[in-house]
């Protein structure tokens, strides 16, 4: 696979488990009629009116008041506070009742796997993932369906002849040949061997690619999280043959699809990292799109444009008001998956993607003319109005 990797630093403001057979575990796992979510360790039942706080840069700020009878999933127990996900916490006092599911349910939830793969029928997906949240076109001339539950258990799946032809996921329960997200490189090698290709502009390795019998398997490595797998991308060779150079052809519709996919990937990442998802800002996206087009048309790569305008200047010029703002740019990555995972492996860009300083994001993509088709330019502008 050919991939061109170009990155630039961003400009920013400012107990042993019981032995339980997976065969005895239902999928999904339910607790009192409610699905036990990935990473959930318990729940809190509200007994008296109390406050949920939001963790903002280590400071707990008021989020909302909750009432008796309400209940919330718990993902971490920090003694004084229970963490509810999305950066929200609640104090452990007489206002709440904390409960945990049985050990068997916890183990089943932890070991739950999603069993479809490349070549399986489209009908095998819906019972496990539910309805399609969005559908976009891809560089292979087919469509990609996006599945998630409020950005948890994120999947992007393409179909060819009514069969799965590509699959990207950040769901830690998904396994391919016994390998799952959060496995280390050593664990990956133990399963699939060391006959692989690597891609990345830095060391340690950012992507490990195996040429398997029916499909290519890409494992994205998080260099800032003990070199564990952060995402998996599988592509059927039949689908790849529709665009052997992999670089997309110039298309405004495809540019828009890449923008949508990057927005979805940003929020899926934020959900994994436990921070609130961002809202899409169309006015901000227009600014980002113009900068990507300017870079691609005039063949430069910088946060400052050829007029010397910074990202903040461009936002202000186009009437976007903000208290906090930041920008990520990238170019050369053949699709949004590679662009996003590369940005996450650059600390500055990563900080923008998962920062709680922002509430909105706008994504702009432009395909510039290039020898192999088109080369994408990506701009992500983050703001807090």
UniProtKB/TrEMBL annotation:
<dbReference type="Pfam" id="PF14504">
    <property type="entry name" value="CAP_assoc_N"/>
</dbReference>
<feature type="domain" description="SCP">
    <location>
        <begin position="264"/>
        <end position="365"/>
    </location>
</feature>
<dbReference type="InterPro" id="IPR029410">
    <property type="entry name" value="CAP_assoc"/>
</dbReference>
<dbReference type="Pfam" id="PF00188">
    <property type="entry name" value="CAP"/>
</dbReference>
<dbReference type="InterPro" id="IPR035940">
    <property type="entry name" value="CAP_sf"/>
</dbReference>
<dbReference type="GO" id="GO:0008233">
    <property type="term" value="F:peptidase activity"/>
</dbReference>
<protein>
    <submittedName>
        <fullName>Serine protease</fullName>
    </submittedName>
</protein>
<feature type="domain" description="CAP-associated">
    <location>
        <begin position="118"/>
        <end position="243"/>
    </location>
</feature>
<dbReference type="InterPro" id="IPR014044">
    <property type="entry name" value="CAP_dom"/>
</dbReference>
<feature type="signal peptide">
    <location>
        <begin position="1"/>
        <end position="23"/>
    </location>
</feature>
<keyword id="KW-0378">Hydrolase</keyword>
<keyword id="KW-0732">Signal</keyword>
<keyword id="KW-0645">Protease</keyword>
<dbReference type="GO" id="GO:0006508">
    <property type="term" value="P:proteolysis"/>
</dbReference>
